[in-house]
């Protein structure tokens, strides 16, 4: 089994999503000893936002002068797509930022979510081109968004599940540590609940 392990919190110390994603990867590796892990740290090394030149080349195949800078951007995009297509399982550390995801994770999604490479349009609608994979989202939130009142404000987990489904990844599991900034819950209880969610999913 090949795991693509992604973290996107800019905080390397004390990050809840990093601890949760590492917990998921460790548990998967313990259950599948033959596993190989490719690690991408989007928090420490954020991918660049797509440039107009790269988008022209990727989306419309328009001719562009390939400068060394554009070539480096394209190489990064192709590497991200290659890592994604090569994995069987992805584990994505995803903090909630302003009801959504951090910009560095969005920049990675903009890199890998490419027409003709990871999805395509057909007369019947969008078809994902990387099916058969499993995703685990290590979701960390300061507040609580899983109640009926707060759910409409959650553009983090539903967005990630939606964009993965667009690429054909339908087997998507949310492992959540929420309320980590709340006194009533806090970091350790949030993480313990995340671990409980993980074990329930893996033992099902
Ligand atoms: C810029 C920023 C925006 C945030 N926005 C939200 C938010 O909208 N809702 C929420 O519940 N927590 C929010 N938080 C809190 C984080 O989701 C929480 O601290 C989480 O643990 C971050 O993940 P990390 O510990 O892996 O860095 C925000 C934190 C930051 C730094």
UniProtKB/TrEMBL annotation:
Name of the molecule in the record: FMN dependent NADH:quinone oxidoreductase
UniProtKB keywords: Flavoprotein, FMN, NAD, Oxidoreductase
Function: Quinone reductase that provides resistance to thiol-specific stress caused by electrophilic quinones.
Binding site for FMN: 9, 15-17
Family, similarity comment: Belongs to the azoreductase type 1 family.
Tagged with keyword Lyase: no
Recorded superkingdom: Bacteria
Entries under Gene3D superfamilies matching the protein: 3.40.50.360
Cofactor: FMN
InterPro entries: Flavodoxin_fold, Flavoprotein-like_sf, FMN-dep_NADH:Q_OxRdtase_AzoR1, NADH:quinone_OxRdtase_FMN_depd
Positions of the Flavodoxin-like fold domain: 1-200
Cofactor, how bound (note): Binds 1 FMN per subunit.
Source species of the chain: Rahnella victoriana
Subunit relationships: Homodimer.
Positions in coiled-coil regions: none
Enzyme class: oxidoreductase
Enzyme nomenclature, EC number: 1.6.5.-, 1.7.1.17
Reactions performed catalytically: 2 a quinone + NADH + H(+) = 2 a 1,4-benzosemiquinone + NAD(+); N,N-dimethyl-1,4-phenylenediamine + anthranilate + 2 NAD(+) = 2-(4-dimethylaminophenyl)diazenylbenzoate + 2 NADH + 2 H(+)
Keyword NAD annotated: yes
